[in-house]
Structure formats: structure tokens, C-alpha cells
Amino acid sequence: MENVFPHGSRCGILDAETVIQIGICGNTKMKKYAMPVIMLAVFETIAITLWLTKGNLFYLFNFSYIGLSISLGVFLFIKQYKHARRIVQLLVGLYMLVYLGLICRENMQIEGFWYYLFTGVFEAATIHYAVAKIFGPLIFGRGWCGYACWTAMVLDLLPYKVPKQPRKKLEWIRYITFAASLIFVAALFLAKVGNIERIMFWAFIAGNVLYYAAGIMLAYVFKDNRAFCKYICPITVFLKPMSYFSLLRIKCDKEKCISCGKCKRVCPMNVDVTDNSRKRENGTECILCMECVKNCPKSAL
Fold first, then answer.
1. Around Cβ 202, how many Cβ atoms within 10 Å?
2. Beta-carbon count within 10 A of 22 CB
3. Gap between the Cα atoms of 60 and 50, Å rounded
4. First-to-last CA distance in the chain?
5. CATH architecture of 250-301
6. Do residues 108 and 204 make contact, with C-beta atoms less than 8 angstroms apart?
7. pLDDT tens readout for residues 160-195
């Protein structure tokens, strides 16, 4: 093809190979940033749907804010900013704990879910649980635990980010706390206690104090920041079954993997991410914290 630029100019018509290379480069960059766009789109869809169906502008603000926060975190992770997940935890965790919980006086813990469920109202905690903890995990697994939980937001500040001891066989305790929360709220309704909404607010305060106290104590006893999540947290009873089918999962490129075991050593939840099957060890415990991805020496994850 003839060069249409003046003689001696460094510019010219790009050959086919160069054009293809530029196209591939552009497509690679687009794919690289696809995830934050997809996450934002998912949450915006939820936000608009709830706004229109419930006729409440709050839902548009609420889920748009959460979607923007998560998308920002994913974007920062792609840019290799080491505090990306911490920023999301603070943005979402403090919003739910301080604004929704303390200022709006909504019990966003499991007792609040039971309360709204028993009253037959699809609002506040029931919507939150449906999106984040019951149906949401089909898409993003236990991402809630890694990026939005206000209990874990504090526990992740403790010194035992990598478990110092083998995992204990204490998961059965979570079913006791799950049942206790259900029995507590059911008893209030059966006894026809008055002013349950006020009780729910104080249950939110007391519950958080107990959760933080238990979480911090267990972290130091087991030398594991996430001991509370593994053994006590009742929310995992909802999260684990759906997370088994999660679309977003950490997968291992077997051709790149050198079986150094570093991913297992840095995982706060003791997940065997080198096994790509859904039945991998502690597979439904993965919180998508990406510590394994960041620490893999061969970029195999």
C-alpha cells in the first residue's frame, strides 16, 4: 500500500499485522476492566428494579452506592493497589453499620431478617439478605464476607491475617447461633411482646458488641483473624450452600502452577484453590479476598 504521507515523514499507513496487534491490545485492556463494569451493572440492575417495583428512591441510592464501592475496589485491585479490598470494606461496612444500623435504626443482622420475615414484609433486612446472602452468592459467592461485612471489617485489622494453626472441627457452633437467633425472634412474636422494633434496634447493638467481643477473643485464642467467620457466624448457614454454585471463582492454571503451596499458606479461610473442582477443600469458605492471586509467584490463579 502506498504511503500517502510526505517523503521523510515517520507516519505512514499501518500494515495489517500492526492493526491486528493494536486491536488485540485494545481488547485485552477492555477485558481487563470488564469485571468492575459487570459488577456495577449487576448492582444498578438491582437498584433500578427495586426502585421501580417498591416505589422507594432509597433502593436506587443504596444499591448504586454499594455497587460503585465494590466496582471501585475491583478497579483498584486490577491497578494493583494493595489496600483495594480494605477500602471497599470501610465504604460498605461503615455505611451499613453506622448509617443503616445506628442512624436509620435498621437491624441488618440475622435477627432483623427473621423479624421482617415473620411480619411478612419484603423490606430492609429481607431485601439485604436476599441480595447479599441468599441469591447473590450464586453470582459472587461469599464476596459479602470479604468486602462488605462490618464484623470482618474490624477483625481483619487484627494481627493474625494468616492462620497460625490448623483449622478446627468447630463449624457446628454456627448452627447453634443460627438457631438461637431464630428462636429469639420467634419467641418475641409468640409472646406477643410490644414494641418489637425497638427491641430489634437494641438487639442490633447488643449483637454487634457480642460479635466483636467473640471475634476478637477467638482471633487471639486460635491466632486466626477469621476464626469467628469459620466457627461462629450464623450467616454462613445461608452463604455456604449457594456459594457452592458461584459463577465467580478462583481457578488455577495447572500448566503454570508449580505446586509451591504459597496460595494455601496465605489463604485466611484455608481453601485449596489449586483444586478447580467445586468439591475442593473448604471451597464454600472462599471470600474472594484475592490474597492467593496476589501472592502466586507464577500468576497461575
1. 11
2. 11
3. 7
4. 44
5. 2-Layer Sandwich (3.30)
6. yes
7. 999 988 889 999 999 999 999 999 999 999 998 888
